[in-house]
Amino acid sequence: MDKSGTAKKRGLGKGLGALIVNTQAQPPLETAEALPGHESVQMVAVDAIRPNPRQPRSHFDEGALQELAASIREHGIIQPLIVTRAPDEPDRYWLIAGERRWRAARLAQLAEVPAILREATPQQLMEWALVENVQRADLNPLEEATAYQVLMEEFHLTQAEIAERVGKSRSAIANSVRLLQLPVPVQQALIDEKISAGHARALLALPDPPTMLQALEQVVSRGLNVRQTEQLVRQVLTRAEPDPTPDTPEDPWREMLAHLENRFRAALGTRVHLNRNPDGTGKLVVHFYSDEDLDHLYRVIAGAEE
């Protein structure tokens, strides 16, 4: 099936560039001293390091880890890990960046790994882990959306603030978070890469979970790409319109209104109902499901999208 929505590596503005030093131009890691403008690299016991408790990534490909472990056995770790001291265990460390390298180092049975020690708040642990994973395109769409949601709910960051931190547009953050509204089976299909984030966003325009699941079945069984899925959604929405009663003459505007309604749905990415009265008046009803959705709709309608 067309994976046009598959994640690609994306450039970031602020983020890990302020955290990571280039070790290739430094002395050997075992003897490295603090250099002007840099932080020193020290060797830390692998067993003293714990995964970042704020790590948004939940899946690590075992085959890729084995390949990285083989490379580490031959070449060592070129880029140091970034760690912070565990608050209640002075001899333990939490990872800020480099969990794949740490896991691969354990597979390679290394006793120590090169690391840079940083002070970090719980919010920074979350932000820096998110930035690293987004930079490396390591998160699936739902892991990324969940991380954004945590930053908004637990740390009270706005979508604009998150966008600045990870180097994306505010609308991209809003579209990502909207994926959490999907029914669980659709979310699972996204995790299993049966559909892409583009497919999932198209399905969000459907009115209810049962309709989404029916459409999902067709998308997967027929191998539809994102554009074909959007067309399927438009067809489903058009069929959902109530037929005129037998004693009511066909409205000559009906076909045009259905077409306009579908265009509104596609443009706004949400449910829309358009009604027209015989005198030419009417109403346009746009549905939203959260404050963030409302903010997204305002920006689209007002032409303020980034």
UniProtKB/TrEMBL annotation:
One Pfam family, short name: ParB_N
GO cellular component, one term: chromosome
GO biological process, one term: positive regulation of sporulation resulting in formation of a cellular spore
Keywords tagged on the record: Chromosome partition, DNA-binding
InterPro entries named in the record: Chromosome_partition/occlusion, Cro/C1-type_HTH, HTH_ParB/Spo0J, ParB/RepB/Spo0J, ParB/Sulfiredoxin_sf, ParB_dimer_C, ParB_N
Molecular function GO terms recorded: DNA binding
Assigned protein family: Belongs to the ParB family.
UniProt name for this protein: ParB/RepB/Spo0J family partition protein
Species per Swiss-Prot/TrEMBL record: Litorilinea aerophila
Classification lineage: Bacteria, Bacillati, Chloroflexota, Caldilineae, Caldilineales
